[in-house]
Amino acid sequence: MGSPPAPPGTTRASPRPAGRARDDIPPVELVGLHKAFGAQQVLRGVSAPFGAGQTSVVLGPSGSGKSVILKHIAGLMRPDRGEVRFRGQRIDNLSESALGPVRRQIGYLFQQSALFDSMTVMENLEFPLIEHTDLSEDDRRQRAAEALATVDLENVEYKFPTHLSGGQQKRVALARAIILRPQVILYDEPTTGLDPIRAAGISDLIVRLRDELGVTGIVVTHDLACTRRIADRVLMLYDGRFIFDGTLAQAEAAHDPHVVHFMSGTPEPEEGLRLREKAVPALPPIAPETGPIH
Questions:
Q1: Which CATH number fits domain 24-105+184-192+214-258: 3.40.1410.10, 3.40.50.300, 3.40.1390.10, 3.40.190.10?
Q2: What stretches of 130-253 adopt beta strand conformation (E)?
């Protein structure tokens, strides 16, 4: 029987590689994050620590800013106000060159995989190693083979991404995300576009990376089946703020109406009204043919 999830924001007691530091400083922490795009205020003071060795799942309606949070952590966006901290160091105000060493410790699985179509799988995996390490060609290929084995792929090294299934592309993208052996992996809708069997496979890989490599995972998703397989902790983003932070069991028993509607998969009253107002009108009846029958 498995152990219960750790409380929100705390370290989960999971296996971690020898030599990896273990302390009370969260790998990632958001402090009062604000972000607007023109007149649209997306983040309104988002704050949360993300504990080491945990998989935290950020849920929320489409357009609520979940992916924006990931882009701030990776340094792809800068906040209007607030701070992003990595292992206690503020990083949102670093220059691009100073961000380099931090980004090498953060893997990113993009929603659409973001593989280079003109490169083979091997070349896709070698790319970050060429950019960020001094490994020899033999060592790069060995590292790539290990990453592919971790995601249960073989005999795909010399194929192009367009020759792979959607599930295989996700696995290759995940292999690339872990090839620099990061402390943190950001997953942007990791199961989007996959059938339930392939989605379950990706979910199980996320769990394995946590348990076998001690990876801290931050996942944004709409997929409640995925959430139920992977989550140590659930956060709900609504109207630019986290309105819930707790375990999956607590989320499923929550009384907040926004959390209840999301977890049950039912539209909120105003959303249901909008959907009814946008209902497709009935099609006019088809006029009978009047021409001769041949």
A1: 3.40.50.300
A2: 184-188, 216-220, 233-238, 241-246
Phi, psi of 186 (to 5 degrees): -100, 125
**What's the pLDDT at 93?**
94
With beta carbons less than 8 A apart as the criterion, state whether 60 and 237 touch: yes
Which amino acid type is present at position 204? D
In DSSP terms, 114 is beta-bridged to none
* Contact criterion met (CB below 8 Å) for 55 and 171: no
**Element spanning 58, H or E:** strand 55-59
Instruction: Provide the pairing of β-strand 233-238 with 241-246.
Output: antiparallel
C-alpha to C-alpha distance for 128 and 199, rounded to whole angstroms: 26
- Residues constituting the chain: 294
Write out the two tokens for 195.
């059938």
What is the distance between the alpha carbons of residues 250 and 291, in angstroms, rounded to a whole number?
A: 66
Radius of gyration of the chain (CA): 22
Domain positions in the chain are 24-105+184-192+214-258
The arithmetic mean of pLDDT across residues 252-259, rounded, is 92
* DSSP H/E element including 196: helix 196-213
Six-digit token string for 255: 């009384």
- Residue 190 and residue 132: Cα distance in Å, rounded? 25
Does the model's pTM come out above 0.70? yes
